[in-house]
Amino acid sequence: MTPDHLRTALTERMTEEGGRWLAGACASVAAEPEVVRGLFPLVGRRCGRGPLDPAVPHGWTVDDAARALLLTAVPLTGTPLLEEIGELYRSGDAAERRAVLRGLPLLPVGDGALPLVRDALRTNDTRLIAAALGDYATDHLDAESYRQGVLKCVFTGIPLTALPGLPGRADIQLARMMAGFAQERTAAGREVPTDIGPVLALFPDVRVPRHRERADVRSATTDRPSPREA
User: Fold this and answer.
1) Fewer CB within 10 A of the end CB, N or C, for the chain?
2) At what angle do helices 114-121 and 143-156 cross, to 10 degrees?
3) Got the DSSP string for 42-84?
4) Strand, helix or coil at 104?
5) Phi and psi at residue 210, to the nearest 5°
6) What's phi and psi for 122, nearest 5 deg?
7) How many CB atoms lie within 10 A of CB 147?
8) Does the reported pTM lie above 0.70?
9) How confident is the model at residue 95 (pLDDT cuts 50, 70, 90)?
10) What is the pLDDT of residues 64-77, one digit of tens each?
């Protein structure tokens, strides 16, 4: 997402009144950066909270997009910007934190906002986790943390299609983790999420035993006579 993409999407999902309010809010923030703290919580009520694209689960919402644009209006860089977005994240509710995470790729913060991403990945809020693994994490998060975040998505039921950078960040270690997860789920008689398939398909050398093979292994183990019986 770019600011222009967000503006275009919002024209179809936000009322004229909401658009006028957002334009005025962005102008106010550009003139006085500190007012963003008072405006940020008002965005949902003023601009709306519905999905930006109803066909995309765990995707952007109207208030995500509007808040992200508000962040891009803040005329700060470096440490002052990091301090400002850090305060918005820490003091905000779940929707405000999600918007900060969504907006990170649009801001000149380098690796400085990674603590916010790691904080979100420690939660059990699926919307925060999905937002944390967006474009910013794709570009900046270390490999081990990214793998653990993806696996957490699988465990919490977040569709992997919600992670835009996954095809490029997937590696053989992640595929092995997925294979191990699939084996454990199947052994427990539980369903394996189908969306791990594309990750495994990227690494055909990582093999997941089929159900029949697992059954044969269990049978061979349990049917083998004990030394006393032999």
Assistant:
1) C
2) 30
3) GHHHHH--SBSSTTSTT--BHHHHHHHHHHHT----HHHHHHH
4) helix
5) -75, 165
6) -85, -10
7) 20
8) yes
9) very high
10) 999 999 999 999 99
C-alpha pair distances (Å), 62 with each of 75, 81, 120: 23, 23, 20
Q: How far apart are CA 165 and CA 167, in angstroms?
A: 6
**DSSP code per residue over 190-224:** -PPPGGGHHHHHT-TTS----HHHHHHHHHHHHHS
The tokens for 72 are 């891009």
For residue 227 the two structure tokens come to 């030394």
Structure tokens at 37: 């703290």
3-class secondary structure, 114: helix
Count of C-beta atoms within a 10 Å radius of residue 39? 19
Residue whose tokens read 């936000």: 14
Q: Which two tokens stand for residue 162?
A: 């919600």
Rounded to 10°, the helix 143-156/172-187 angle is 30
Indicate the helix (H) or strand (E) that contains 9.
Answer: helix 3-13
Q: Are 81 and 115 in contact (CB under 8 A)?
A: no
d(CA 89, CA 61): 17
For residue 202, the tally of other CB atoms under 10 A from its CB is 14
Measured CA to CA in angstroms, residue 176 lies from 25, 65, 180 at distances of 48, 36, 6
- With vertex at residue 145, the alpha carbon angle to CA 143 and CA 151, rounded to the nearest 5 degrees, is 100
- Please give the average per-residue pLDDT across 86-105, as a whole number: 98
Q: Which two tokens stand for residue 158?
A: 């977040």
Listed residue (61, 115, 110) closest to 87, CA to CA: 115
